[in-house]
Amino acid sequence: MSEINEGLYQEAYLAFQEGKNQAARDILTRLLKSEPDNPDYWLLLSGVVENKKERLFCLQQVLHLDPQNPTARQGMVMLGQIPPQPDLMIPMQHQRFSWKAPSLLPVKTTSARQKARPLRVILQISTAIIFMAIGGMIYLHYSGKQTTIKEVQRIPPPQVAPSATYLPSSTLRYVTPTEASSEMPPLSSLLQYTYTPTPLYVQTPHPRSEAYRVAMNKMASQDYEEAIIYFQQVITNEPQAPDIQFYIGEAYRLSGDRSNAKKAYQAALDISETFAPAYYGLGILNIEASTPNYDAASDNFSRAIELDPNYIEARLALAEIALQQNDPQTVFEILEPVIDLEQVPATVHYLLGRAYYLDGDLKLAQIELELAFQQDMTILPVYRLLGEVYFQQSLYTEAIPLLEKYTHYVPDDGDALAYLGEAYFKTGDNEKALEIVNLALQTIRNNASLYYTRGLIYFAEEKIEPAIEDFKISLAINKKQFDVHMALSLAYLENGQPGNAYLQLNQAEAYIASDEQQAQLLYYRAQSLERLDEIQAAINDWKALLELPDDIMPADWKEHARLQLSLLVTPTRTPVTPTVTKTRVPTRTPTITLTRWPTRTFTITITPRPSRTPTITFTPRPSRTPTITFTPKPSQTPTPASTMKITATPTP
Question: Is the pTM for the entire model greater than 0.85?
Answer without folding.
Answer: no
